[in-house]
Specification:
The structure is a homotetramer. Chain A is α+β, with helices and mostly antiparallel strands. Chain A has helices spanning about 25-45, 50-55, and strands at about 5-10, 55-65, 75-85, 90-100, 105-115, 135. Chain A has one domain (about 5-125): Roll (Thiol Ester Dehydrase, Chain A). Chains C and D meet through helix 1 and strand 2 of C and helix 1 and strand 2 of D.
Amino acid sequence: MSAIPAFTVPFEVRDYECDLQGIVNNAVYQQYLEHARHLYLKQRGFSFAELTKAGIYLVVVRAEIDYKSPLRSGEAFVVSSRLARLTPVRFAFQQEIHCTVPRRLVLTATITCAAMSQAGKPIIPKGLDALFDGPAS
Amino acid sequence: MSAIPAFTVPFEVRDYECDLQGIVNNAVYQQYLEHARHLYLKQRGFSFAELTKAGIYLVVVRAEIDYKSPLRSGEAFVVSSRLARLTPVRFAFQQEIHCTVPRRLVLTATITCAAMSQAGKPIIPKGLDALFDGPAS
Amino acid sequence: MSAIPAFTVPFEVRDYECDLQGIVNNAVYQQYLEHARHLYLKQRGFSFAELTKAGIYLVVVRAEIDYKSPLRSGEAFVVSSRLARLTPVRFAFQQEIHCTVPRRLVLTATITCAAMSQAGKPIIPKGLDALFDGPAS
Amino acid sequence: MSAIPAFTVPFEVRDYECDLQGIVNNAVYQQYLEHARHLYLKQRGFSFAELTKAGIYLVVVRAEIDYKSPLRSGEAFVVSSRLARLTPVRFAFQQEIHCTVPRRLVLTATITCAAMSQAGKPIIPKGLDALFDGPAS
């Protein structure tokens, strides 16, 4: 792991995100993770929406998610994200979700991404180096 | 792989499932996969909603998804699901999504599930054996 | 009401569409209604996604929805849609959702739409007359 | 209008909430409105999730939404809510969404709600009077 602190985003569970089990629906965690990744990109100077308009498509090529403990209505939580470069055109986010009170691990995820043209060809967006803390951990 | 054919469910992309890239949002594929799993359970006599009411919580403990090719507005596709038992209380769905026209692989996924009480204790629901085609492939 | 039969689309409630009350979440009904409207447009030769690419934005300007009876996990239902022109650039969908078994009215809605350029100026898409059954009822 | 200030909740548009038009999908605004209503209830001592567990179902019986101007990726906005009692068992939220920068009205909504038992019978939850600022405006 890098010694650089992870980028963190605070959230709160909204009731419409819970399903009939009374817990956050599995798919919704992917939305949380995506939002945290896009904010990560933003604070490094990359807007997902602007990249898309410019014809650069950041896409997820693989998601591995380990669900440890569910989130419930109204709970506050934090998504932390680190980014590592795997190859010149592939990079992986290491992400974790922790519930705030009581403090507990909700999930861990590795989300592998690539940048592509609309036609699906690999692209290296200009200035991409600014995204990374260091080599893959 | 089992010789028994996979359980398949036909779908069609709805426009609200597409995001600003014009393709189905990553999290939405997990919704498709979940719906296909719940229909798999149903045709074997298990209702997810009824199990939940009875205090048996089927939960996803790990998701591995490989995204191969995105789905777009209006495309028809099929989700196929197979189920294998990993341990007495864990089981894994092997799922694939194929676009219908033109025929292409959209994603493959392995979704590992467990049955738990609301308190988080492992449970083996009565008649669970009826769910499985055979041993883990 | 026009004597022309309404355009109908069959659906089935998916578990992830239900919230912690065990019924379909209010916002999800708007997704059903939207999908039915887009299929209405499609069978008249208008693709929402193609229109958007061409710079023509169909937008909802007003929604009135009366919720009569909730939908639950697994229920089959039908969305029926009629379209009437209000002014040269405004049109209104009259939509209803009926649960199939037992047959009951789930909701009625009037959704007023307009066509706009990306800059927000009213547009009359070519061939728009093909959309309508007749005058506003 | 009551002289009492409205209850406000700050939000930020998440990319997954935008559809292929590049703007927040119509149904998502209802999710924002619902979340703001549930926080309104919470600060008055009512938890939507707790009420549901106790067999008291707060349901929307009518929604009227006027869409004035769409929200886009990353925009910050505020949902303001006021609540008025219409009859002993019906109450209406007056809600507005304003984008923060540039300041503009995004939508206005009137959401009429009722409290019911799971069987659909009207209920007056104990202490309900604490919810209201005053008479219907």
